[in-house]
Amino acid sequence: MDRDRIETVGLRWLRRLVIAAFLLVTVFPFYYMLVLSVRPIERLLLDPGSLVVGLGELTFDTYAEVVRAVDDGGQGFLTLMRNSGLVAVTATLLTLAVAIPGAYAVARLRFFGRRQVDFLFLAVYLFPSIVIAIPLFVVFTRAGLRGSLLGLVLVYISQTLPVSVYMLRNYFETIPVSLEESAAIDGAGRLGIIRRVSLPLAAPSIMAVALYAFMIAWNEFLFALLFLVDKPHRWTVSLGLAQLSDGVEVPKTVLMAGSVLLTLPIVILFFASERLLTEGLTSGAEKG
């Protein structure tokens, strides 16, 4: 074998080893969490390092306890997941409803201060969340929105909207202007151009932004704790999981079952939209 062949084969196997290592580091924690969630606590105490669950010891009682209502002796995660789902879906839809026309306007329209818009949007992320948490807490308390899911949705929109506009603006700029001009010649108005031309072409990027907004709203903890701490019936699933982790009397198998329920919706959404998500994340990288 010549040197070029050796380097090609070596790099090919090195790439496979690197991918396998990253896959192991990524998948193993979730796999071990899943294993712990379906093992009886007695078996876990006897053999905590086991990575295989026998069919004889497989149990889903932990999941039943997690989703069962608190009045029935459970952890009430079904209510918490409903609250999180309502907040995450509403925040995602409202973010897209504002970000899509806003990003299109920045990409296509000419107005004073257009060049400074990107900086102003991304400047939000120059400050830690805790810096804006206290002012938001005061404002929402005076407005009577503290302790409500609507107030939490508005807070999440303020977190997801700037980067959503930035991501979508980059993609809208890659869409050839000639396509929109052709639609205008055929008699389409501005809204018709957006609906029939721009939105179908921007579907991958919109999907990526939607998944990003959903993940932020589903997993966020700080603002949920700050705004809902005195309203346990309105807690999100991240608050419920934190309560489980702080409870000494809660078995770790139940804690792992709650962690699986917190993680599973994001994993399912990611794999269901993996192709569109990959296209959306790489869209706008090149302009042409």
TrEMBL record:
InterPro entries, per database record: BP-dep_ABC_trans_perm, MetI-like, MetI-like_sf
The keyword Transport is assigned to this record? yes
Q: What membrane topology is annotated for this entry?
A: Multi-pass membrane protein
Q: SUPFAM superfamilies from the xrefs?
A: MetI-like
Q: One of this protein's Pfam families, by short name?
A: BPD_transp_1
Taxonomic superkingdom = Bacteria
Domain named ABC transmembrane type-1 is located at 81-273
Q: Where in the cell is it found?
A: Cell membrane
Bilayer-spanning residue ranges: 13-34, 86-107, 119-141, 147-168, 205-229, 254-272
Keywords in alphabetical order, please.
Cell membrane, Membrane, Transmembrane, Transmembrane helix, Transport
Q: Does the keyword Repeat apply?
A: no
Q: Which family does it belong to?
A: Belongs to the binding-protein-dependent transport system permease family.
- Spell out the protein name for this chain: Carbohydrate ABC transporter permease
Per the UniProt entry, what species is this protein from, by scientific name? Micromonospora peucetia
